[in-house]
Structure formats: C-alpha cells, structure tokens
Amino acid sequence: MENIIKISLLIVFVIIIPVSAVLNYYSRSAQRHSEVKRYLSILNIKKVELFELKHPVVSLSTAVAFVTLLSVCFWYLVLFGEESGITNSANYLLGGANNIGLASAIDQEKITAYQSGALLTFNMAFLGAYLWGIQNIARRYSMNDLIPAAYYNIGVRMIFSCLLALVFYHLSKMIPGFSLSMVTDSSQAQGAVSKDLSDVSAQKFMPIIAFLLGMFPERGIKWLTGKFSIFSKQIDNKDISVRELPIQMIEGISTYDQIRLQELGIDSCYDLANIDCIPYLFKSPYTPRILINWILQAKLCVYFGQNVKELRDHGIHTIWQLKNYKAEDLKELAKKTALTEDMLLLVNQQVSEDKEIERLIEAQLELSKYWNKKEEN
C-alpha cells in the first residue's frame, strides 16, 4: 500500500510538466499568434517565416521529454532512494573522497551513514529546483511563454543544483568550520568550532542549505568561488576601463525576467541597449511598451553607469527623458548631481542625433495602440 501511494505521488508530481506544455500549446498559443500577427500588420512585415519557430511540436516535445525523464529519476530517488539500497554500496558521487579505502565490512556503517546524508542533500536540492521550476512554468504559462528553452532551463537547473549541493556537502565534511561559515560571517566563531561540531552543524543545516541552493544556485556558486583565492582575487589592471553594468540595474526586471533575457543572449545593459528591438519583440513575451522602456533605460545606464541612480532621483529614468532637457535644465541638473555639465551636454547632443531612439519611441507608440480614439472638436 505504501509503495502504491509513493508511485501515485511520483506520477502526480511528474505529470504536471507535460500537462502544462499541452495546455499551453492548445489553449494559450493562439493568443500569442494573434498578437504576433497584429505586430506584423502594423510593421508591414511580409517575411513572416523569419519570425516563426520551425517544427514547434517536435522542439517542445523533446524539451518536455527531457525534463519529464529527469523528474522521474529524481523523484524516484526522493521516494525510493533509501529502499533501493543506493546508499549501502560505496560510490564516489554520494561518498566522494571520504569513501576511498573504506570497503571493509567494518566501515560499512560509516559508508551508509555518510551517503545517506549525501542523498538527503541531493534530494533537497532537487526539491528546491523542482519548486522553482513549477513556479517558473506557472508564471510563463500566464505570459504565453512556455517555449522549449524554458523546459531545458529547468532540467539543467535540476542537474546543476543537485551536483552543487553535493559539493557543499562533501566540503562541509572535509573542511572543519565550513558548514558554520555558511550560516554565519563570524570568523572567530569559525575558528573556535571543532571538527566534531562542524559535522553536527552540517547534518543540521545542509538539507536547508541544499534546498535553497536548488532555488538559487547562482548565489551558491558565487559564494563558493569567493571562498577560494584563485577565484576571488580580481586581476589588478589599471588599464581596464570597462564598467560592469549587470541587467539588474534596469528598473522593473525581476529574477524571472533576468533568466528570460539570458535565454535570449542578453546578460548586461550593454547587450540590452544594442539589441534589434523588433526581432526580440517576437522572441520574448514582453509588450512593446515594457521591452522598449527597458532598452531606453539600458541606454541611459551605458552612458552614465552607476550615476544613473542620481538621475532617477531627479525623475530621469530613460534616455528619451534626458533628450527633452534643454541646456538651461542640464546646467541646473549638473548642480544637483555629481555629473558635470559638459558630460550632460555631450550626452544630450549624442542622443538628439541618434535616430534609433526616435524610432524606438515611434514603434512603442504604434505597437501599443489597441483602440483609435477620436479627436474631440
């Protein structure tokens, strides 16, 4: 009876993935196709095949099959992992370097205990990645954006999160105080902790940490690389003048939006500021008003870098707003910010001569129209 319940749970948790794809394809995709046709009509684009996905059913089916198969394997480990005896025989995935030389019957209990903890960590990381994936599917279903890349992204996240969690688990066993450093920043506490206390801390906190790694693997890899000097030391080169402009600098972009833009090859404000708007409009689920606003924000970030915060405090959020400032207004703005008057005048002149910005504004107005208001006499 217990196995029947577990199998039923496995089926329920896994079937959500293919069902979401089927529902989206037959009930939601028509709305997206209608919107694309409207854009094509307004823009007078005849080469429709340039913006159509070739063999959409095959592409989507392959991606869904990939994530579904992964989910079956991972959910099997969650529900039947201990019963399968996978933790009893030594293997380097769950046991790591700690199992080297431990093969006798005397060491069997140590092997099983260690690998049981590793399996729990592995499973908790999968549960975090699975929960994030279900939330992502629900969000993208509501946005008519369940494309094959969305499912591939979830599958890769599951694999990456589980392996990353195992790395954390093995390091917590090998390095005294490592587990405590994951929950506190106190170097004195880390120095005072003994090896035995470190192992106890790992048992208490690793399942929770593994679950969070499944939800936010990027934060885990960033924290881990910061612990090793070979990764944490930055190249000391005074000639480097390229500023870091992460996509998070754009107002209105959430974590989900950042991942979606990365699927399109947009990783920074430089990328977003220089994309060809129309092709990306067909590839993304965002409305013209939102996408073009982000592009204009990105252009402002490219010109001013971190100083864009001061401009926002004075009501300037996009490069188009700065274009409308006159010379007198820019002089007053220079007095209120750390920006120089010459810099503001130079950027204003460059923006005024940039015809692409005017085309973006024109496209934003035309593509965002859904009704024709009659002018009052």
Name a few traits of the molecule:
mainly alpha; 18 helices; single chain; 2 domains; flat; 377 residues
Walk me through the structure.
With 377 residues, the chain is mainly α. The chain folds into 2 domains: 2-232, no CATH class; 251-367, no CATH class. Helices cover 69% and strands 0% of the residues. The protein has helices spanning 2-43, 56-80, 108-142, 148-174, 178-181, 187-192, 195-215, 217-226, 229-232, 255-263, 269-273, 277-283, 288-304, 308-313, 319-323, 327-336, 341-353, 355-367. Helix 1 runs parallel beside helix 3 (108-142) and helix 3 (108-142) packs parallel to helix 7. The chain is flat and about 85 Å long. It starts with a helix and ends in a 10-residue tail after the last helix. 29% of the residues are buried.
